[in-house]
């Protein structure tokens, strides 16, 4: 009985609503009936549009369209903000969010490359980046790098200051040897040939050392130099003094972990050992320098109980050759002239089959705490630093190296970024976004970084965009803001 009564009330309410709309329509029709004959078509059109059933159908259709678009938006902005942006209306919310993001930001602009980084929603900026076109203005080698620090900024700053400087030194020296080969006497040449042979012997000797840790066995190259003084990568004490390590440590690591016996130091070759014909073996050079820098970083942070670590994504361009080295979960992608998105690196995540197996074989485990973590702590399975996890090689610093012939791909641009960006963009979304913003001063690096912040990234975000003209990279001078 109650259901019938409610149904009757509903019918009467609908009928009353229809009567109201009809009366409104009649009054409106009266207005349109008074229109001049040449506008009489408006009268017929309005008579049709104001019919209750037409209004109901149109309203339902509009609601369904709005719901569909809202549910399928990739952006976190509302559908109505999208409409405002399309109509070039400015909303108050988005500029406010962008202004907050830009408050702590860093940028560098070159003629064909640019970088933009923000602290974002983190309390500290732990990312670092490097843009260096034509190292030493004479090598014809350009270097780009992203370091995503964790546990403090010390490790990322160390990598930027020391690892990069060591690479500069080796590249400059190797280039000089190629451009200006020494005119030696026959005896000196014989000695030089013997030294060159020793480059290979040193590699073999390293592989035969049973007690060499996994970190060194997996390296592309190792070295056994005569003395530490002979090492071309001696760390400048002035640089070290500028770096102020944080006196912090994980509570789960006891004093025994901190004072355990350090692993043997990997030592780098002389620059001549990286020369192959008239070129440089960048893959082996980067591998050696990354492992050397990692050992020095672990050695330094162990003394100060500093648990900082960092990823490393390094790209070297020489002519049409691109070499990309990756340690951790920063990522690089290339967009070629056919509109394809090509990965330049692959994330080192604990849950990946290869990394999970390696960690288990080292006696470790992974645990899920929001994301998969090594020993329930670190979300990346490879990094520089992180000394407590280096003791049993649970975390290693061995880089994966990929090399590309740019003339085969004819790239339009390359994107290198910390995982703060990749938390909110897929590879394809990132390249599509940059493609639409290449005409901007930062070639889209600034826009995509801020867009990632708007989408909700909670990490530091650093983005480098390298632009190619006709598939070639043109070296130019830099300007900073």
Automatic annotation (TrEMBL):
Residues 112-468 form the PPM-type phosphatase domain. It comes from the Eukaryota. PROSITE patterns: PPM_1, PPM_2. Gene3D superfamilies: PPM-type phosphatase domain (3.60.40.10). The keyword DNA-binding does not apply. GO terms for molecular function: metal ion binding; protein serine/threonine phosphatase activity. Keywords: Hydrolase, Membrane, Metal-binding, Protein phosphatase, Transmembrane, Transmembrane helix. InterPro entries: PP2C, PP2C_BS, PPM-type-like_dom_sf, PPM-type_phosphatase-like_dom. The chain crosses the membrane at residues 54-71. The keyword Transmembrane helix applies. Belongs to the PP2C family. This is PPM-type phosphatase domain-containing protein. It comes from Chironomus riparius.
């Amino acid at each position: 009985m109650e259901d019938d009564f409610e149904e009757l009330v509903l019918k009467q309410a609908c009928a009353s609503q229809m009567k109201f709309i009809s009366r409104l329509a009649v009054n409106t029709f009266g207005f349109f009936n008074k229109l001049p004959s040449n506008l009489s078509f408006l009268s017929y059109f309005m008579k049709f549009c104001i019919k209750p059933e037409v209004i109901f159908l149109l309203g339902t259709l509009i609601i369904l369209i709005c719901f569909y678009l809202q549910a399928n938006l990739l952006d976190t902005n509302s559908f109505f903000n999208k409409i405002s942006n399309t109509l070039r209306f400015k909303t108050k919310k988005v500029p406010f969010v962008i202004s907050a993001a830009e408050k702590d930001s860093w940028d560098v602009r070159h003629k064909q490359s640019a970088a933009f980084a923000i602290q974002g929603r983190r309390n500290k900026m732990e990312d670092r980046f490097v843009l260096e076109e034509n190292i030493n203005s004479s090598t014809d080698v350009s270097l780009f790098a992203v370091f995503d620090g964790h546990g403090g900024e010390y490790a990322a700053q160390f990598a930027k200051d020391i690892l990069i400087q060591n690479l500069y030194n080796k590249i400059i020296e190797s280039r000089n040897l190629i451009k200006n080969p020494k005119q030696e006497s026959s005896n000196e040449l014989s000695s030089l040939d013997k030294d060159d042979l020793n480059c290979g012997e040193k590699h073999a000797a390293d592989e035969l050392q049973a007690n060499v840790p996994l970190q060194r066995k997996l390296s592309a190259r190792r070295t056994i130099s005569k003395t530490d003084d002979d090492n071309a990568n001696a760390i400048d004490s002035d640089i070290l003094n500028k770096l102020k390590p944080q006196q912090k440590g994980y509570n789960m690591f006891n004093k025994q972990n901190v004072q355990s016996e350090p692993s043997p130091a990997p030592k780098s070759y002389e620059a001549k050992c990286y020369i192959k014909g008239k070129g440089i073996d960048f893959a082996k050079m980067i591998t050696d320098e990354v492992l050397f820098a990692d050992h020095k970083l672990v050695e330094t942070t162990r003394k100060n109980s500093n648990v900082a670590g960092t990823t490393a994504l390094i790209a070297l361009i020489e002519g049409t050759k691109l070499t990309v080295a990756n340690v951790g979960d920063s990522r690089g992608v290339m967009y070629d002239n056919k509109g394809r998105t090509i990965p330049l690196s692959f994330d080192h995540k604990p849950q990946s089959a290869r990394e999970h197996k390696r960690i288990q074989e080292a006696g470790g485990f992974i645990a899920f705490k929001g994301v998969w973590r090594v020993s329930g702590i670190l979300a990346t399975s490879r990094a520089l630093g992180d000394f407590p996890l280096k003791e049993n090689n649970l975390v290693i610093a061995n880089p994966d190296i990929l090399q590309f012939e740019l003339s085969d791909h004819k790239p339009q641009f390359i994107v290198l970024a910390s995982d703060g960006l990749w938390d909110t963009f897929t590879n394809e979304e990132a390249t599509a976004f940059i493609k639409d913003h290449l005409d901007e001063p930062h070639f889209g690096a600034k826009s995509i970084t801020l867009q990632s912040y708007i989408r909700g990234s909670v990490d530091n975000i650093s983005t480098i965009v390298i632009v190619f003209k006709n598939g070639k990279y043109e070296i130019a001078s830099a300007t900073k803001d």
